[in-house]
UniProtKB/TrEMBL annotation:
It comes from the Eukaryota. Residues 135-158 form the Glucose-methanol-choline oxidoreductase N-terminal domain. Belongs to the GMC oxidoreductase family. PANTHER family: CHOLINE DEHYDROGENASE, MITOCHONDRIAL, GLUCOSE-METHANOL-CHOLINE GMC OXIDOREDUCTASE. It holds the Pfam family GMC_oxred_C. The keyword Flavoprotein applies. This is Glucose-methanol-choline oxidoreductase N-terminal domain-containing protein. The lineage of its organism: Eukaryota, Metazoa, Ecdysozoa, Arthropoda, Chelicerata. Its cofactor is FAD.
Length: 533
């Protein structure tokens, strides 16, 4: 990095109240025992307000994966000045341990969004409001998204260009950029689809359980090939690829001169500050953060903005078309000799990982495999609309139970669907609806940037989503029966109506998209330069 990069963040190591439960105590211990080096990160200067410049070439809002890579690339030019604004701080050590990332959602580096009550799903959550974890930390939501690395399907990128005029966003256009930021470390890397010199480390976990071998054998017998899902095709089964390796400056408004973005207003420790951008303002604050910021800045449905007395810069459907992957989780009892279900982590496991980055704690979110398949409701039979992900966490894991209860799941729902069955060993599995047809929205409650917006993903509102999810669960029942001798859905064999029980455990999958969507036609006619990443 040879350019001038200023980063406004706030390191939060050790801050906050003392841990109140076993979950908090474990992560406090992890933070003490595991020494995660930050030598690979660029040295970021955490400036006091008085030392900030009044103007930068580029102002980047949001220090997630996109924002950090953009800041690094832009500042490589020694003549360029870049300001990266991030509301959160540095991640704690427990966030970098693959095996624990599924247990520590929430906390000071999560925005703690909640959906509005859902009409068609989320019966197992308090007030039928779904938790919507989003990263408030340097690294963004990638820090809390289980370290799994999975690109979008090529068809989706091609459709953006073909259907919506997003020129330059076809898969052949974005693939070089995926490769450019990727440091794929597996020896089997296909150079046509993977890069090895970028900023984002990607590899397979160096430890696997017997479940991996048995499940892969079952998939092969069922006719599902082994694939690189970030390669030429996605349908099939694969070990997961993971983002692993052996600020308190919150923007409140984009400032416009006419319809041209000229800077941003942000607060740090309660003090307002304005900074100008000579070239571009780049929004990379995530699906929710960028959308909320656009609305607060006057870009959105005019009627909604005028109701809140926000001056309208551009009347556009910002906030509409919200999508998210849907997941249904359940426990799978094992009636054969398959050794499934990682037992609770011990101090020895933590010390082993600290010593050589191996052991079951090195498996990201205890997720070893993914399987992609299509249902009868897929828009294209060549494009998978269902993802099955067996998870090695034991149903008897008290740590997992505690973490989900803290997110708002009702105890009786957890015990019914994810708890151990009659004392049998087992594992968990997730059915993910990858191409939902339901669409939701995001809207402002007020002009206060600190008040969370109303977020309604409208999970399972489209009838085809329910049908596809049901078929996915039936496929899961067949797959688990092949590899374990038992079924995740024993009641399904008796009554199709029993599937309705499983809607009670419907959740969302951390993969929001679309309410600040790009349209080439709208961009050219109504926006003047600022960028959304």
């Amino acid at each position: 990095m040879s350019g001038d990069l200023d980063a406004m963040t706030c390191a939060l190591w050790g801050r906050g109240a003392a841990p109140q439960n076993a979950l908090g105590l474990l992560f406090a211990l992890v933070n003490l025992l595991v020494h995660v080096p930050f030598t690979d990160l660029p040295v970021l200067r955490d400036y006091e307000l008085g030392k900030l410049r009044q103007r930068y070439d580029y102002v980047i809002v949001g220090g997630g994966s996109a924002g950090c890579v953009l800041a690094n690339r832009l500042s490589a030019d020694p003549t360029v000045t870049v300001l990266l604004l991030e509301a959160g701080g540095l991640e704690t050590a427990s966030r970098q341990i693959p095996g624990t990332v599924g247990f520590n959602l929430g906390g000071h580096d999560d925005w703690d969004y909640r959906s509005v009550p859902q009409r068609h799903a989320a019966l197992s959550f308090r007030q039928r409001r779904l938790p919507l974890p989003r990263g408030k930390v340097l690294g963004g939501s990638s820090v809390i998204n289980f370290l799994l690395y999975m690109r979008g399907h090529p068809h989706d990128f091609d459709r953006w260009q073909h259907d919506y005029g997003a020129t330059g966003w076809a898969y052949e256009d974005v693939l070089p950029h995926f490769k450019d930021i990727e440091d794929f470390r597996a020896e089997t890397a296909d150079g046509e689809y993977h890069g090895t010199t970028g900023e984002v480390p990607v590899d397979y976990a160096n430890t696997s359980t017997r479940l991996t071998r048995v499940y892969l054998e079952a998939c092969n017998e069922a006719g599902y090939p082994y694939v690189d899902y970030n390669g030429p095709t996605q349908q099939g089964c694969s070990r997961v690829q993971a983002n692993v390796a052996a600020g308190s400056a919150q923007v409140t408004k984009v400032n416009f001169k006419g319809k041209r973005a000229v800077g941003v207003t942000f607060t740090r420790y309660g003090q307002p500050q304005t900074v100008s951008a000579k070239r571009e303002v780049i929004l990379s604050a995530g699906t929710i953060g960028s959308t909320q910021l656009l609305l607060l800045s006057g870009i959105g449905p005019a009627e909604d903005l005028e109701r809140l007395q926000i001056p309208v810069v551009a009347d556009l459907p910002v906030g509409c078309g919200l999508q998210d992957h849907v997941n249904l989780q359940m426990a799978v009892p094992v009636s054969t000799d398959v050794e499934a279900g990682i037992p609770p982590f011990t101090l020895d496991d933590i010390q082993q990982y600290d010593g050589n980055r191996t052991g079951t704690i090195s498996i990201p979110a205890s997720t070893e495999l993914v399987q992609f398949l299509h249902t009868d409701y897929a828009t294209d039979p060549d494009i998978a609309d269902i993802e099955l992900a067996p998870v090695s966490t034991s149903p008897a894991s008290e740590l997992f139970r505690t973490s989900l209860l803290e997110l708002g799941i009702l105890p009786e729902a957890y015990d019914s669907f994810l708890g151990p069955k009659d004392g049998q060993p087992g594992f968990r599995t997730v059915v993910i609806l990858n191409r939902p047809k339901s669409r939701g929205y995001l809207s402002l409650r007020s002009r206060d940037p600190n008040q969370h917006p109303d977020i309604d993903p409208r999970i399972l509102e489209h009838p085809d989503d329910i049908k596809a999810a049901a078929q996915g669960m039936l496929r899961l029942a067949c797959s688990t029966h092949k590899c374990t001798g038992s079924s995740a859905l024993p009641a399904v064999r008796r009554s199709r109506n029993s599937l309705l029980f499983f809607w009670q455990f419907t959740a969302r999958q951390l993969h929001f998209t679309n309410p600040a969507r790009y349209s080439g036609k709208l961009y050219k006619e109504q926006f003047l330069p600022f960028s959304a990443a």
